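(Fold this chain)
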Amino acid sequence: MTQPTAELLAIADFNDARLDEDEMVARAASGATVVGEPGAWQPSPTGDEWEAHISDHDDEELLVALRPGLPRPPEVMGGRWGAVVASTPDPADPDADSPMPAFVHAARHDPARVLAEVGAKRLFNQRWRKLITEIDADPDPERRKRLAGIRQDLDQVARHLAAAHDKHPDYRSEWRS
């Protein structure tokens, strides 16, 4: 069943808005101060480097270097790397949960990676949106039918991208695949 153009474009708009939010948050994280002084760090055009690390003193840390390619010096606060978050394990509670899994997750989803994913998803959304409008404008019924069949698979991808944000107040349950 072919979906109405307006509904598909509403999904595209919703996905674009979520990408805008993801980009804004990633850029804010990338330009944030990590050494305690406003303006001390600037985002790198090639992206940041994030790392989860256990220090020589057993502190669990999430580190960031906003100048990629620099080696992590032994003293991480020495101007090239900064600790975004650090936690010292409590020797009195050896069963306490470690924040390291969260640090590894944060490092894996650093701003540079998020921005790359935003770019890829934005490209998909632009091409999908173009296909939606081209089908409506194509005067050849056979070509429209063929393109609509291709587009239906892409419609499902776009719906899945939207469903990743199903708790957002603008998400519509009828978009669920």
